[in-house]
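Revision sheet: C-alpha coordinates.
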Amino acid sequence: MTRVESWFGIARSLAMYYGVPLRAGRMARLYGQFVTPGSLCFDVGAHAGNRIRTFRRLGACVVAVEPQTAFVRLLHGFYGRDRDVVVLHAALGRAPGRARLFVSERAPTVTTLSRSWIDKVRRDPSFRGVRWAEGAEVEVRTLDALIDEFGVPAFVKIDVEGFEAEVLSGLSRPLPALSFEYLPAAREIALECVERLSSLGEYRYNWSRGESLVLGEAAWLDAGGIRRFLASLTLGSGSGDVYARLGGWTPSSPAPAPTSSS
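Predicted:
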Protein backbone atom coordinates (compact mmCIF):
# COMPACT_ATOMS: atom_id res chain seq x y z
CA MET A 1 0.00 0.00 0.00
CA THR A 2 1.18 3.51 -0.74
CA ARG A 3 1.57 6.44 1.60
CA VAL A 4 -1.23 8.15 -0.35
CA GLU A 5 -3.61 5.28 0.42
CA SER A 6 -2.62 5.39 4.08
CA TRP A 7 -3.30 9.13 4.35
CA PHE A 8 -6.56 8.67 2.44
CA GLY A 9 -7.63 6.07 5.00
CA ILE A 10 -6.80 8.34 7.94
CA ALA A 11 -8.66 11.27 6.35
CA ARG A 12 -11.64 9.03 5.69
CA SER A 13 -11.75 7.96 9.35
CA LEU A 14 -11.53 11.55 10.57
CA ALA A 15 -14.37 12.61 8.29
CA MET A 16 -16.45 9.59 9.29
CA TYR A 17 -16.10 10.08 13.04
CA TYR A 18 -15.76 13.84 13.40
CA GLY A 19 -17.56 15.26 10.39
CA VAL A 20 -21.20 14.42 11.11
CA PRO A 21 -23.20 17.32 12.63
CA LEU A 22 -25.02 16.65 15.93
CA ARG A 23 -23.32 13.28 16.44
CA ALA A 24 -21.35 14.52 19.45
CA GLY A 25 -24.56 15.45 21.26
CA ARG A 26 -26.17 12.06 20.56
CA MET A 27 -23.02 10.33 21.73
CA ALA A 28 -22.97 12.27 25.00
CA ARG A 29 -26.62 11.42 25.67
CA LEU A 30 -26.02 7.73 25.05
CA TYR A 31 -22.83 7.35 27.07
CA GLY A 32 -24.12 9.64 29.80
CA GLN A 33 -26.29 6.71 30.88
CA PHE A 34 -23.13 4.86 31.92
CA VAL A 35 -20.48 7.50 32.56
CA THR A 36 -20.38 10.16 35.28
CA PRO A 37 -17.70 12.71 36.24
CA GLY A 38 -14.70 10.87 37.66
CA SER A 39 -15.60 7.54 36.04
CA LEU A 40 -12.93 5.41 34.40
CA CYS A 41 -13.57 4.26 30.81
CA PHE A 42 -11.65 1.86 28.57
CA ASP A 43 -11.84 2.57 24.83
CA VAL A 44 -10.73 -0.68 23.20
CA GLY A 45 -10.16 -0.07 19.53
CA ALA A 46 -9.98 3.69 20.01
CA HIS A 47 -9.17 4.38 16.34
CA ALA A 48 -9.61 8.13 15.67
CA GLY A 49 -10.63 8.87 19.26
CA ASN A 50 -14.11 10.36 18.99
CA ARG A 51 -15.32 8.21 21.89
CA ILE A 52 -12.40 9.49 23.97
CA ARG A 53 -13.58 13.02 23.27
CA THR A 54 -17.08 12.20 24.50
CA PHE A 55 -15.88 10.35 27.61
CA ARG A 56 -13.71 13.33 28.53
CA ARG A 57 -16.60 15.77 27.99
CA LEU A 58 -18.59 13.63 30.42
CA GLY A 59 -15.78 14.04 32.95
CA ALA A 60 -14.32 10.52 32.71
CA CYS A 61 -10.71 9.39 32.73
CA VAL A 62 -9.88 7.22 29.71
CA VAL A 63 -7.52 4.38 28.89
CA ALA A 64 -7.46 4.09 25.09
CA VAL A 65 -6.17 0.91 23.44
CA GLU A 66 -5.27 1.07 19.74
CA PRO A 67 -3.02 -1.28 17.70
CA GLN A 68 -2.56 0.79 14.52
CA THR A 69 0.61 2.90 14.70
CA ALA A 70 -0.75 5.78 12.61
CA PHE A 71 -3.79 6.13 14.85
CA VAL A 72 -1.73 5.87 18.03
CA ARG A 73 0.24 8.87 16.75
CA LEU A 74 -3.02 10.65 15.98
CA LEU A 75 -4.35 9.98 19.48
CA HIS A 76 -1.13 11.24 21.06
CA GLY A 77 -1.51 14.38 18.94
CA PHE A 78 -5.09 14.89 20.11
CA TYR A 79 -4.77 13.85 23.75
CA GLY A 80 -1.06 13.63 24.57
CA ARG A 81 -1.24 16.64 26.91
CA ASP A 82 -4.31 15.40 28.75
CA ARG A 83 -3.19 13.74 31.99
CA ASP A 84 -6.54 11.96 32.25
CA VAL A 85 -6.05 10.06 28.99
CA VAL A 86 -3.64 7.14 28.60
CA VAL A 87 -3.00 5.85 25.08
CA LEU A 88 -1.70 2.28 24.80
CA HIS A 89 -0.19 0.99 21.57
CA ALA A 90 -1.56 -2.54 21.86
CA ALA A 91 -4.48 -4.87 21.23
CA LEU A 92 -6.47 -6.91 23.72
CA GLY A 93 -7.14 -10.65 23.61
CA ARG A 94 -7.66 -13.77 25.69
CA ALA A 95 -3.99 -14.00 26.75
CA PRO A 96 -0.92 -11.76 26.66
CA GLY A 97 1.42 -12.16 23.71
CA ARG A 98 1.73 -10.84 20.19
CA ALA A 99 -0.51 -11.08 17.13
CA ARG A 100 -0.45 -9.93 13.52
CA LEU A 101 -2.73 -7.23 12.17
CA PHE A 102 -4.54 -7.57 8.86
CA VAL A 103 -4.61 -4.01 7.60
CA SER A 104 -6.94 -2.23 5.22
CA GLU A 105 -5.09 0.97 4.39
CA ARG A 106 -7.96 2.60 2.51
CA ALA A 107 -10.56 1.53 5.10
CA PRO A 108 -8.59 1.38 8.37
CA THR A 109 -11.77 1.08 10.44
CA VAL A 110 -11.89 -2.60 9.40
CA THR A 111 -8.29 -3.49 10.24
CA THR A 112 -8.46 -6.67 12.33
CA LEU A 113 -6.56 -9.40 14.15
CA SER A 114 -8.96 -12.08 12.89
CA ARG A 115 -8.39 -13.76 9.54
CA SER A 116 -11.54 -15.85 10.04
CA TRP A 117 -13.59 -12.66 10.50
CA ILE A 118 -12.33 -11.39 7.15
CA ASP A 119 -13.52 -14.60 5.50
CA LYS A 120 -16.97 -14.16 7.06
CA VAL A 121 -17.54 -10.50 6.25
CA ARG A 122 -16.65 -10.88 2.58
CA ARG A 123 -20.27 -12.09 2.24
CA ASP A 124 -21.54 -8.66 3.32
CA PRO A 125 -22.17 -6.31 0.37
CA SER A 126 -20.90 -3.37 2.43
CA PHE A 127 -17.43 -4.95 2.40
CA ARG A 128 -17.32 -5.26 -1.39
CA GLY A 129 -14.01 -3.90 -2.61
CA VAL A 130 -12.30 -3.93 0.81
CA ARG A 131 -8.82 -5.48 0.72
CA TRP A 132 -6.60 -6.55 3.59
CA ALA A 133 -2.84 -7.12 3.74
CA GLU A 134 -0.64 -8.54 6.45
CA GLY A 135 0.63 -5.81 8.73
CA ALA A 136 2.93 -5.60 11.72
CA GLU A 137 2.79 -7.73 14.82
CA VAL A 138 1.39 -5.93 17.86
CA GLU A 139 1.47 -6.50 21.59
CA VAL A 140 -1.63 -8.18 23.00
CA ARG A 141 -2.75 -7.50 26.57
CA THR A 142 -5.86 -8.60 28.46
CA LEU A 143 -8.76 -6.76 30.03
CA ASP A 144 -7.85 -8.33 33.37
CA ALA A 145 -4.33 -6.90 33.11
CA LEU A 146 -5.68 -3.42 32.33
CA ILE A 147 -8.00 -3.60 35.33
CA ASP A 148 -5.11 -4.66 37.56
CA GLU A 149 -3.10 -1.67 36.31
CA PHE A 150 -5.71 1.09 36.10
CA GLY A 151 -8.74 -0.03 38.14
CA VAL A 152 -12.28 -1.20 37.41
CA PRO A 153 -13.86 0.82 34.58
CA ALA A 154 -17.43 2.07 34.71
CA PHE A 155 -17.71 1.48 30.98
CA VAL A 156 -15.74 -0.38 28.30
CA LYS A 157 -16.26 0.23 24.59
CA ILE A 158 -15.05 -2.72 22.49
CA ASP A 159 -14.87 -2.27 18.72
CA VAL A 160 -12.16 -4.55 17.34
CA GLU A 161 -13.51 -5.96 14.07
CA GLY A 162 -14.24 -9.57 14.90
CA PHE A 163 -11.99 -9.91 17.95
CA GLU A 164 -14.63 -8.90 20.51
CA ALA A 165 -15.13 -12.41 21.92
CA GLU A 166 -11.36 -12.79 22.27
CA VAL A 167 -11.22 -9.54 24.23
CA LEU A 168 -13.96 -10.72 26.60
CA SER A 169 -12.19 -14.06 27.02
CA GLY A 170 -9.46 -12.06 28.75
CA LEU A 171 -11.94 -10.87 31.39
CA SER A 172 -12.64 -12.91 34.52
CA ARG A 173 -14.94 -10.57 36.50
CA PRO A 174 -18.20 -8.76 35.77
CA LEU A 175 -17.97 -5.09 34.83
CA PRO A 176 -20.70 -2.49 35.35
CA ALA A 177 -21.35 -1.73 31.67
CA LEU A 178 -19.81 -2.23 28.25
CA SER A 179 -20.53 -2.38 24.55
CA PHE A 180 -19.34 -4.58 21.70
CA GLU A 181 -19.90 -4.49 17.96
CA TYR A 182 -22.20 -6.84 16.07
CA LEU A 183 -22.18 -7.61 12.35
CA PRO A 184 -24.81 -9.83 10.71
CA ALA A 185 -22.26 -11.73 8.60
CA ALA A 186 -20.40 -12.68 11.78
CA ARG A 187 -23.23 -12.70 14.34
CA GLU A 188 -21.82 -15.75 16.09
CA ILE A 189 -19.06 -13.53 17.51
CA ALA A 190 -21.63 -11.28 19.17
CA LEU A 191 -23.46 -14.37 20.45
CA GLU A 192 -20.19 -15.62 21.94
CA CYS A 193 -19.85 -12.27 23.71
CA VAL A 194 -23.33 -12.68 25.21
CA GLU A 195 -22.43 -16.17 26.41
CA ARG A 196 -19.22 -14.91 27.97
CA LEU A 197 -20.96 -12.08 29.80
CA SER A 198 -23.72 -14.43 30.98
CA SER A 199 -21.05 -16.60 32.58
CA LEU A 200 -19.73 -13.60 34.51
CA GLY A 201 -22.93 -12.00 35.80
CA GLU A 202 -26.58 -11.18 35.24
CA TYR A 203 -26.57 -8.63 32.45
CA ARG A 204 -29.32 -6.75 30.66
CA TYR A 205 -28.88 -5.81 27.01
CA ASN A 206 -29.81 -3.25 24.39
CA TRP A 207 -28.59 -2.44 20.90
CA SER A 208 -27.91 0.53 18.67
CA ARG A 209 -27.79 0.35 14.88
CA GLY A 210 -24.77 1.73 13.03
CA GLU A 211 -23.69 5.13 14.31
CA SER A 212 -27.26 6.16 15.22
CA LEU A 213 -26.24 6.32 18.90
CA VAL A 214 -29.84 5.64 19.88
CA LEU A 215 -30.87 2.51 21.79
CA GLY A 216 -33.20 0.26 19.87
CA GLU A 217 -35.29 -1.02 22.78
CA ALA A 218 -37.34 1.00 25.26
CA ALA A 219 -36.91 -1.78 27.84
CA TRP A 220 -33.61 -3.58 28.30
CA LEU A 221 -33.54 -7.24 27.25
CA ASP A 222 -32.39 -10.35 29.05
CA ALA A 223 -29.82 -12.67 27.43
CA GLY A 224 -32.54 -14.56 25.58
CA GLY A 225 -33.93 -11.34 24.17
CA ILE A 226 -30.63 -10.11 22.77
CA ARG A 227 -29.92 -13.56 21.32
CA ARG A 228 -33.24 -13.39 19.46
CA PHE A 229 -32.40 -9.93 18.15
CA LEU A 230 -29.00 -11.09 16.88
CA ALA A 231 -30.54 -14.19 15.31
CA SER A 232 -33.07 -12.00 13.43
CA LEU A 233 -30.41 -9.97 11.61
CA THR A 234 -30.00 -10.27 7.86
CA LEU A 235 -27.05 -9.16 5.73
CA GLY A 236 -28.97 -6.01 4.90
CA SER A 237 -29.51 -5.11 8.56
CA GLY A 238 -26.19 -3.36 8.93
CA SER A 239 -23.77 -3.40 11.82
CA GLY A 240 -24.20 -1.86 15.25
CA ASP A 241 -23.36 -2.25 18.90
CA VAL A 242 -24.75 -4.32 21.74
CA TYR A 243 -24.83 -2.56 25.12
CA ALA A 244 -24.70 -4.60 28.32
CA ARG A 245 -25.17 -3.44 31.89
CA LEU A 246 -25.00 -5.46 35.07
CA GLY A 247 -28.41 -6.01 36.65
CA GLY A 248 -29.21 -3.43 39.31
CA TRP A 249 -26.18 -1.30 38.44
CA THR A 250 -26.25 2.49 38.38
CA PRO A 251 -23.36 4.75 37.29
CA SER A 252 -20.47 4.11 39.64
CA SER A 253 -18.71 6.44 42.03
CA PRO A 254 -15.63 8.25 40.72
CA ALA A 255 -12.64 6.08 39.84
CA PRO A 256 -9.02 7.20 40.24
CA ALA A 257 -7.34 8.75 37.24
CA PRO A 258 -5.04 6.46 35.24
CA THR A 259 -1.39 6.87 36.06
CA SER A 260 0.52 4.76 33.50
CA SER A 261 1.34 5.60 29.90
CA SER A 262 2.77 3.91 26.83
